[in-house]
Amino acid sequence: LLSRWKYECSKVDHEKCNLVLSEIPYRI
């Protein structure tokens, strides 16, 4: 799910994506 999320994010705004990811405690 995370890789997919990053992939979708790469299509959109990187800054917004990074903000969301930074707020979510995630593990690779």
How would you explain this protein's 3D organization?
By secondary structure, this protein is mainly alpha-helical. Helices cover 71% and strands 0% of the residues. The radius of gyration is 8 Å and the shape is flat. The N and C termini lie close together (10 Å). The relative contact order is 0.21. The mean pLDDT is 68.
How would you classify the helix and strand content by structural class? mainly alpha
Tell the overall outline: flat
Q: Number of helix segments?
A: 2
What's the total number of strands?
0
Radius of gyration: 8 Å
In short:
The protein has 28 residues and is an all-alpha fold. It has one domain (1-28).
Which tags fit this structure?
mainly alpha, 28 residues
Layout of helices and strands, plus pairs?
Blueprint (H helix, E strand, L loop, with lengths): L1 H10 L2 H10 L5
